[in-house]
Automatic annotation (TrEMBL):
InterPro entries: FAD-binding_MO, FAD/NAD-bd_sf, Flavin_mOase-like. Belongs to the FAD-binding monooxygenase family. This is NAD(P)/FAD-dependent oxidoreductase. Gene3D superfamilies: FAD/NAD(P)-binding domain. Keywords: FAD, Flavoprotein, Monooxygenase, Oxidoreductase. It comes from Streptomyces solicathayae. Its EC number is 1.14.13.-. Its cofactor is FAD. It is an enzyme of class 1 (oxidoreductase). Transmembrane segments: none annotated.
Length: 506
């Protein structure tokens, strides 16, 4: 394949152009390399390194909030002893995946995709990318576009407007823009927020900070899980990682799905159990009702996982504390609350959430017609109505992200096999059911979801247009179900993908 450079003038053409070298893009490239060895592909990454989330976020204690045997790829066993792993260990795993599958030569760093247009006449995408270092634009063409861009804005996190923040004499930091070398040793730290980022930051910073205070408007459900799973490690020792992997994954999927289903079907019971677990991990007189009893039902928002109860240990040891109140304004020395209390701080961390963003701000169009993702409907939660030859990967919110990515990539390869077999050059999901109800792509009530979900494609109420966040149902329709159905329109234009069809393709 011709190597792209910042000054290229002639577009580079590939069968599949993958956008993003995070876990979704690396997964797509790995599946193509293994299942479709003749398919040419390139991965465009806006930043200068791979890893997505795991190289972007640098805040203290960053780690997975899903178990790694299922967050890792199905084709590459997770071998580290920790099931809840630190960010740098996950990044090492992704770098190993790239090396083992020979993907490095396919990745082009520093190319931020700004626009992608599909031509029905040519049956291909033309993609425009801007090089981060030179600012020059480069063009790529491809039969298929695979969007592995995730679901949030990598450039900027969400920070509310706080009165008086300009008066504060200390430092205000958002976890997404963590300053390199920030020294918080012995300092008073206030972390605003109660979600996954906050409960990760607090026990890590509390090891060396003078004191860390979690300031929250309202509590979240926090669930303690072992950092090392003794059953998983025993199976790995007995059977070896390769043979143990399918057993461990089935176990972890079953446990996680069962817990989710019980939360939804018996919310009062699970509420009592979750809060009782918190109560037993904190000092006897701790005000759990105020600080760790949410107003909503379990899994209306994501559960926050803490490995080995590390946050509760930091609170019990007096290194961290929790305040539940609303912010009146920042002062020179800290934050004044609506109750009148003032929290003294040297550093304030605004762990206030992400900005949800579909498909990396890429301007999409078909035959010179701009397409707003919010006007489309997701087909099998991996393609978009009215968008030919486009596949995207958005992982689960109630299970490991990568389980969905693997299924999408498997189905994508089967789709290419099917098109090769029948001589099709394009495929487009067509919404032919006028009575299909439009519903949000995600049904979580979290603030970050509610702020941004209107910009995403919608889901449907039935058939292949549903987005159910249910692994067992996606296995049925993506891994085991037929490729062709009434929702897809295939066309032939005398051009086929260059890859050869693997044996046994359906």
């Amino acid at each position: 394949m011709t190597n792209t450079t910042a000054g290229q003038t002639k577009p580079v053409h590939v069968d599949v152009l993958i956008i993003g070298a995070g876990i979704s893009g690396i997964g797509a490239a790995s599946h193509l390399k293994a299942r479709r060895p003749g398919t040419s592909f390139t991965v465009l990454e806006a930043r200068d390194t791979l890893g997505g989330t795991w190289s972007l976020f640098r805040y203290p204690g960053i780690r997975s909030d899903s178990d790694m045997p299922t967050y890792g790829f199905g084709f590459k066993p997770w071998t580290h002893r920790k099931s809840i792993a630190d960010g740098h260990v996950i990044l090492d795993y992704l770098q190993q995946t790239v090396a083992e599958n020979g993907l490095a030569e396919h990745i082009r760093y520093g190319y931020r995709v700004v626009g992608a247009e599909f031509s029905s006449v040519r049956g291909r995408w033309t993609v425009t990318a801007q090089h981060a270092r030179t600012g020059k634009k480069a063009r790529f063409t491809a039969r298929f576009l695979f969007l592995g861009t995730g679901m949030y804005d990598h450039d900027q996190g969400f920070t509310p407007v706080f009165d008086g923040v300009e008066d504060f004499g200390g430092q205000v930091v958002h976890p997404q823009q963590w300053p390199e070398g920030l020294d918080y040793t012995g300092k008073r730290v206030v972390v605003i927020g109660s979600g996954a980022t906050a409960v990760t930051l607090i026990p890590s910073m509390a090891r060396t900070a003078g004191h860390v205070t979690m300031l929250q408007r309202s509590p979240s459900y926090i669930f303690s899980a072992p950092a090392e799973d003794p059953i998983t490690n025993a199976l790995n020792a007995l059977l070896g990682h390769r043979r143990a992997q399918p057993i461990v994954r089935r176990k972890n999927i079953a446990v996680t799905r069962a817990m989710y289903k019980v939360c939804r079907r018996a919310p009062r019971l699970m509420r009592k159990l979750l809060i009782a677990d918190v109560r037993r991990r904190l000092p006897k007189n701790f005000d759990v009702d105020t600080h760790f009893t949410p107003r909503y039902d379990p899994w209306d928002e994501r559960l926050c996982v803490v490995p080995d109860g590390d946050m509760f240990k930091a609170i019990s040891a007096g290194r961290a504390s929790v305040v539940t109140d609303r912010i009146d304004r920042f002062t020179k020395t800290g934050i004044r609350l609506e109750s009148g209390q003032e929290l003294a701080a040297d550093i304030v961390v605004t762990a206030t959430g992400l900005n949800m963003l579909p498909f990396g701000k890429i301007r999409l169009s078909v035959d010179d017609r701009p397409v707003d993702p919010s006007d489309t409907m997701a087909y099998k939660a991996m393609m978009l109505s009215g968008m030919p030859n486009l596949v995207f990967a958005l992982g689960y919110t109630n299970l490991s992200w990568t389980l969905k990515v693997d299924l999408v990539c498997e189905h994508f390869c089967r789709l290419l096999d099917h098109m090769d077999l029948h001589g099709y050059s394009t495929v487009e999901p067509v919404l032919d059911d006028r009575h299909q109800e439009r519903v949000p792509y995600l049904d979580l009530k979290s603030n970050y979801v509610q702020r941004g979900i209107a910009r995403f494609p919608c889901a449907g109420s039935r058939g292949p247009w549903t987005v159910e966040q249910a692994y067992e149902k996606d296995v049925e329709r993506l891994r085991e179900g037929p490729v062709e159905d009434s929702g897809l329109q295939f066309t032939s234009a005398g051009a086929e993908l260059s890859a050869s069809r693997p044996e046994g393709a359906r």
